[in-house]
Write a structure and sequence with these properties.
three-stranded antiparallel beta sheet, Double Stranded RNA Binding Domain, single chain
Length: 97
């Protein structure tokens, strides 16, 4: 899959978009809500009112961490060194109430 990005004042360029899976550790907070961290993405800490929200925030933060690494020439977290291609077996939380 590719998406288009318009560079500052330049023509659009195609950027390849890959997907990777990361492990998340989710814990309930005493004051309510949940916190998600990942052994695969150092520095990732995401809080949400529900497990689903914590996971969604963790996904967005992970994307920003990876984009920052790419932008600044920093090494990617190890989980992204070898991107996994489908088929994948994933556990996905589904909010019921």
């Amino acid at each position: 899959m590719a998406r288009k990005r318009k560079a500052q004042g330049k023509r659009e360029e195609q950027i390849a978009v890959d997907e990777a899976t990361i492990r998340l550790h989710i814990e309930p907070l005493k004051e309510g809500g949940y916190v998600a961290t990942s052994p695969d993405v150092p520095g990732l800490v995401a809080e949400g009112r529900s497990i689903t929200e914590a996971v969604e925030i963790a996904q967005g933060l992970t994307r920003k961490i990876v984009e920052s690494c790419l932008e600044h020439g920093d090494p990617l977290p190890a989980a992204f060194a070898k991107l996994r291609k489908p088929p994948l077996n994933l556990l996905v939380p589904v909010g019921i109430r």
